[in-house]
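Chapter summary example.
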Amino acid sequence: MLLSLVIALLFTSCNVKSKTSESSQNITYNIEELNNPNIRTAYFASGCFWCVEAIYESVKGVKESISGYSGGHKDHPTYEDSNTGTTGHAESVEIFYDTTVIDYPTLIDVYFGSQNVSQVNGQGSDHGSQYRSIIFYQNQDEKQIAEKKIAELNQLIAPETVAAELKKFEKFWVAEDYHQNYERNHPKQSYIMAVSIPRIKRFQEKFPELLKTDSEH
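The structure predicted for these 217 residues follows.
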């Protein structure tokens, strides 16, 4: 019985039936805090956005992390659309970060330090183009920083290669409300327990110096 439960948890994917087909219109930001010349955005995809959002929100200097969809061709995608793998979109996160605390190269370190860098079209048990890894660069500086890191990693993991795509950022579509802060709001959900929390803990063990203190959460 216990073995069956463990196996079921391990093969749980980042997939729940949507309670709504509409993309979120209700995400609110602390405008005063984010409307600051030191606050910038960054965009990443790396498997299930529940995991990636929670990882970045544990990092000092990250003010907000939003789950959504990017990289595809369909306007106003829904979770159900994304899960078909036909929209071109990947589950992504929008990161708001304070440049006086953390820089873009460190965000890239967090990105690669929290995933299986050579897994194509997925992370762990999540498979499909909607779970592929993508760095969405907004300018040449971001592109060059990512290219340099990928080149360094390719040397380290040869003969395997880094699977993450480099893609020019175009549009970020905010995911439905119930996806936001999913790991925080559903700590006992089977996928969160079996996949998200272990992934977050592995990251935190590798980068303890980057983590927020309790007072910063």
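To summarize the output: The CA atoms of residues 12 and 191 lie 5 Å apart.
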